[in-house]
Amino acid sequence: MTLAVRVIACLDVDAGRVVKGVNFRDLRDAGDPVELAARYDRERVDELIFLDITASSGSRSTMYDVVERTADQVFIPLTVGGGIRSTEDMDRLLRCGADKVGVNTAAIAEPDLLRRAANRFGSQCIVLSVDARRCTGGMATPSGFEVTTHGGRRGTGIDAIEWARRGAEMGAGEILLNSMDADGTTGGFDLELIGLVREVVGVPLIASGGAGQAADFARAAESGADAVLAASVFHFGTVSIGEVKAELSRVGLPVR
């Protein structure tokens, strides 16, 4: 049985508001996260992802409140990421109503966090977020892609494809693959990057970064993504959830 391709809306949350930019810069306000989540629920999105892009201790309590208020009103799967540094952070978010938690920088600094989290909460709750970009400036990895941190601004020299494989092996139940080169550009998903990660991981793969039109989502799914994610094109009405699902169905991919 072929699983349906999931359509996911991503909300980048900064101090309690949804924002969106290009390549994580030039952010503009996109609305209240709880109101947007309710709108996406009405539009029959399959899942939501909240990313706390401030991720400072000052914004953490605001994010807990946003998650609680969203979980009270919206009954679709919710993943929360950004600034999660420990299993205690994960525990509190899950208790606030998150269904899954996403980790990025903390897992790079301490890979065993993935194993501990999977053992405590189950792999199905743990999403490894991989912010990948093509290597530049003489930096090279075997795949040509490296893992970045700080919204794509800092390279690590870690091979992005190998890191995704290793993360799944250590307990991540899902990979959120973000193309830093394509983020916010609306020029289409990085199909090469998706294909390379698909070859080495057996867990569900979420494609993120670059969506501009409905056809882009179908191409990402055909390249190996189990779920397709977007932010700005959904927030600002460029493409609707319904249009994406119709296009996926048109090319023969199952949808919910």
The separation of the N and C termini measures 14 Å
**Structural class designation:** alpha/beta
Please state the average pLDDT score: 91
Radius of gyration: 17 Å
Reading the helices and strands in chain order gives EEEHEHEHEHHEEEHEHEHEHH
Sheet with the most strands, sense and barrel status: 8 strands, parallel, barrel
Low-confidence stretches: none
Q: What share of residues are in beta strands?
A: 25-35%
Helical residues, percent: 25-40%
- Spatial order of the strands in the main sheet? 1-4-5-6-7-10-11-12
Brief synopsis:
With 256 residues, the chain is an alpha/beta fold. It is 38% helix and 27% strand. It has ten helices and twelve strands.
Give structural attributes:
globular; eight-stranded parallel beta barrel; 12 strands; alpha/beta; 27% strand; single chain; 256 residues
Structure description:
It is built from 10 helices and 12 strands. The protein has 256 residues and is α/β, with parallel strands linked by helices. An 8-stranded parallel β-barrel has the order 1-4-5-6-7-10-11-12, surrounded by 8 helices. Helix 3 links the parallel strand 5 and strand 6 (100-103). The two termini are 14 Å apart.
Write the layout of secondary structure elements.
Elements: E1 6-14, E2 17-22, E3 25-31, H1 33-42, E4 47-52, H2 57-73, E5 78-81, H3 87-96, E6 100-103, H4 105-109, H5 112-121, E7 126-134, E8 145-149, E9 154-159, H6 160-170, E10 174-179, H7 191-200, E11 205-208, H8 214-222, E12 227-230, H9 232-235, H10 241-250
Parallel strand pairs: 1-4, 1-12, 4-5, 5-6, 6-7, 7-10, 10-11, 11-12
Antiparallel strand pairs: 1-2, 2-3, 7-8, 8-9
